[in-house]
Write a structure and sequence with these properties.
It is built from 1 helix and 44 strands. A hairpin with a 7-residue loop joins strand 38 and strand 39.
């Protein structure tokens, strides 16, 4: 039995040397080449586009249920319509051709020409951008059907990301059809090989990095080591690892049957530190953070030390000491997984997100380096817009009056909305009172919300429950209380509402900020009921008082005991 190495690419021509020893002193030597596995590409276009294949440059490539190229239906077809002047490619999936110096290609095709003046090609690429020609024809009449076989020797051979393309170049009006089928790409001549090996480590800690990808050819193991065979030549190898900046080591020379050591010391993409978050002006969110400064300084100092050590070691190859420190370019801010802004100045360490919708939000920030983006540093915050407080519903036949404490210090406050039994009954209310008129008997639940600029609405207030009765029935409050005044601020009059659950003596007096009595509004016996009294802004002598802050105090005496309450109001002129 003869076996190849486990990392021998599929469809690669492998060389075998044989030493034979048998009974009776029989010995011998020999060698042979054989293809390992199947073909790199074996496509009969049973579906279009085949899995992993793409088209670019226009829409004239497609599949067709015919066999004009000499294979069996269906097949690929380039069709003249719509008339398009462009380079249009039918591109294969990427395949690994590592270890090959040449490849063998065959395909069947047939050209149905109209007027000539265009080019048909087979091209290859290893980066999806730069294309090299394998075969080309400039038809002046029909061609085929025919089987073409050719060697592929473009610079892309040996790449781990090799792609093949069938190309139309020109005005599609000048051709009727180009049929292509039975595309076979196999390994050609094996290349002379060398070995590349090394370790991948964190440049700060020196610890091995597991799972790093080295040029798509190897993955680092638990100890950070890797190894792979590759055709001799000069290469640029790029190493990538999650959470680290990519690192490219250039001009690595691989020699036949020799091991070239290439070590990757990877820079971690450090995120910002000390991220803080706070709410300003209701629903604006401010983020502040610090740069990874001290850690970056440590990283670069660590690199310089390693560089100095390596430069004194003549056994270390030049490519091992390539400078791989990276610059901090800026930051990216995210909210709920979506990018909000890219801050291109790394000295900017604050950001304000204006007008954020109420609810719980996750904010995140990354540091952007010239080698990539750091891990995401996140923090959560809940936006709660101020809610109207002390909402009360008072029935004074035949209406229900809803009052509440107004929102204060509201730069972005716009209005109130009122809800009855879960349904909105009023919007764009700018005062702290609303009258719901002429309701039938029943029990009602009221809520009030505050609406802010931008349409943001707060949560509902606490329930205010009221019972509406017929006109010949007097509604008795469930508790004695001073409800409040409306309007507030006022000019020149305001109405003060209060309720008594039982009859008794009641006193309501107005005081100035010095504590002196300005006006006595109520002083005497009152029945159990809802009451209201109006202050016209005058004192006990009938003189109009000055604008400013005033207090009104209610004192009641009943069988259940003494009740007192004081509230404030503002007279504006």
């Amino acid at each position: 039995n003869a076996t190849s190495a486990t990392n021998t690419p599929e469809a690669h021509l492998a060389a075998f040397d044989i030493d034979i020893t048998a009974d009776f002193g029989i010995t011998g030597t020999g060698s042979f080449n054989t293809q390992i596995g199947g073909y790199l590409i074996e496509e009969y276009f049973d579906t279009f586009p085949p899995a992993g294949w793409t088209t670019t440059g226009g829409g004239n490539w497609g599949g067709n249920n015919s066999s004009n190229a000499g294979g069996t239906a269906p097949e690929a077809r380039f069709y003249w319509s719509p008339s398009t002047t462009a380079v249009q490619r039918l591109i294969s999936l990427p395949v690994n051709t590592t270890g090959s110096s040449t490849l063998e290609l065959e395909f069947k095709h047939m050209i149905d020409d109209y007027s000539g003046g265009y080019s048909l090609r087979v091209e290859t690429t290893s980066d999806g951008t730069n294309w090299n020609t394998v075969w080309e024809i400039n038809p002046n009449g029909n061609v085929g059907p025919e089987l073409l076989q050719m060697d592929v020797t473009t610079p892309d051979v040996g790449s781990s990301t090799f792609q093949l393309a069938f190309v139309f170049d020109g005005n599609s009006w000048n051709i009727d059809y180009w049929y292509v089928d039975d595309v076979i790409l196999g390994g050609g001549q094996s290349a002379l090989l060398g070995t590349v090996s090394g370790t991948v480590t964190d440049i700060i800690t020196g610890q091995p990095i597991v799972g790093a990808d080295i040029a798509g050819l190897a993955v680092s193991g638990a100890d950070g080591s890797y190894s792979f065979d590759i055709a001799i030549g000069t290469y640029d190898f790029t190493c990538t690892a999650d959470g680290y900046e990519y690192l490219t080591i250039e001009d690595v020379e691989v020699l036949e049957s020799q091991t070239t050591t290439v070590d990757f010391a990877m820079n971690p993409m450090l995120p910002p530190v000390n991220l803080t978050i706070e709410i300003v002006t209701f629903n604006d969110v401010e983020l502040n953070w610090e740069t990874p400064g001290s850690v970056l300084d440590e990283r670069n100092a660590n690199y310089n030390q390693k560089l100095s050590e390596r430069l004194t070691d003549n056994s270390v190859r030049k490519e091992e000491v390539t400078d791989n420190t990276r610059d901090l370019l800026g930051y990216k801010i995210y909210r709920d997984g979506a990018e909000l802004v890219y801050i291109e100045n790394p000295d900017t360490l604050t950001y304000t997100d204006v007008g954020v919708e109420p609810g719980v939000h996750e904010y995140g920030i990354t540091a952007v380096y010239d080698g990539g983006e750091s891990d995401l540093l996140t923090v959560n915050i809940e936006i709660i817009l101020p809610i109207p407080q002390d909402v009360e519903a008072i029935f004074i036949y035949p209406d229900v009056h809803i009052i509440w404490v107004p929102i204060s210090d509201g730069r972005d406050f716009a209005s109130y909305s009122v809800y009855r039994d879960g349904e909105q009954i009023a919007t764009d209310i700018t005062s702290a009172m609303y009258t719901d008129p002429n309701l039938p008997s029943g029990v009602y639940i009221y809520n009030v919300t505050a609406v802010y600029d931008g349409g943001w609405e707060s949560d509902w207030s606490d329930d205010a429950v009221v019972e509406v009765t017929e006109s010949d029935n007097i509604l008795i409050p469930v508790r004695t209380e001073l409800a409040g005044n409306y309007p507030n601020p006022f000019n020149p009059t305001t109405t003060i509402k209060f309720g008594l659950k039982e009859a008794g003596d009641v006193s309501i007096k107005i005081y100035n900020i010095k504590g002196s009595v300005v006006r006595t509004l109520v002083d005497g016996q009152r029945n159990a009921a809802y009451h209201e009294v109006v202050w016209d802004g005058k004192d006990n002598a009938g003189k109009t008082v000055s604008s400013g802050l005033y207090f009104y105090k209610m004192v009641s005496e009943g069988n259940s005991g003494r009740y007192t309450s004081t509230k404030k109001m503002i007279l504006l002129k």
